[in-house]
Design brief:
mainly alpha, transmembrane, globular, membrane, 0% strand
Length: 114
């Protein structure tokens, strides 16, 4: 795996960990704004943190990268959908869009390894 892909994996993972730990109060506000339940928020958070961990582990074990990258990308598509549905301003949509693009790159780079 090339170094840019590994860097992208780290950026996605650290971003997810940061948001779901240090910025959790914003996550609570957004999920409430979107009308999603606490259970949904907890399931999404646990899954995203697990996927982020797999992306980091995938630096050493590249076979683990494709599925977490695709699933994380799907979470970012869902985030874009909910931001669109709630008519969020563009600055709120940009982070999940950037992470989505990084996930697409990571997934495509991992396919080239197979």
């Amino acid at each position: 795996m090339n170094s840019f892909s590994a860097l992208a994996q780290i950026v996605v993972a650290v971003s997810v960990w940061f948001v779901w730990t240090f910025r959790f109060h914003n996550v609570v506000k957004e999920f409430n704004h979107f009308g999603l339940s606490d259970l949904t928020r907890s399931l999404v958070g646990a899954t995203k943190v697990a996927l982020a961990t797999l992306l980091v582990v995938g630096i050493w074990y590249p076979a683990l990268v494709l599925i977490p990258a695709v699933l994380m990308g799907l979470f970012m598509v869902a985030a874009q959908f909910f931001h669109f549905k709630a008519n969020s301003p563009w600055p709120k949509r940009v982070p999940s869009l950037v992470l989505l693009l990084l996930c697409v790159y990571i997934a495509s780079a991992s396919l080239n390894l197979l």
